[in-house]
Specification:
Helix 3 packs parallel to helix 5. By secondary structure, this protein is mostly helical. The radius of gyration is 18 Å and the shape is globular.
Amino acid sequence: IMIFLVDGHNDIILVFFLLWSLRELKRGNGLVAFLAFVLSFLSKYITVIFAPFYIMYYLKKYREWGKRVIFAVWALVIGSLVCFFVIKPFWCGMKFFEGLSCARAAFHENAITYVWYKIFLVFIPNLSRADGMFFLQIVFLLVYGVFLYTFFRGSRTVDDVIRGMLVVFAAYLCLASFQFGAWYVIWILPFL
């Protein structure tokens, strides 16, 4: 609780909206689930790694092209409006995204990826942190792509989607995250 109240980490907001989204997904409220997902994304951009799960679930749920198009249009309209109204008060041009590049430039010793980097240094002594992180991100993208491909070959339930999200989140923390803070543990909550 201290991490969220004193240190100001907004991960609890991500978790709240992701929980709401998954709850609505289980109830069959697609547009509300999508709205909550967009709000989760707006609180922490990492949520974007779960977007393919939603897309593939909706593609399987709405088998008729007409229903897919109607859902996609509504989702696009709702998502765009929510993004506009949430971001508008803070918009300052492209400077709005500067924090992302600063965060990505860091590679903290408290990350699981840093352990991998240290192991790589045994075999490649001159490997820079940036190159090590880049390599790990490529490995994550390959694992992510293979997992998504194999995961969505069959029909999936909402529970399968939630378990798939948990696997991808774990892979992200182990292969691509540039830091690991104690507050990340709360991210597991929506998947329980």
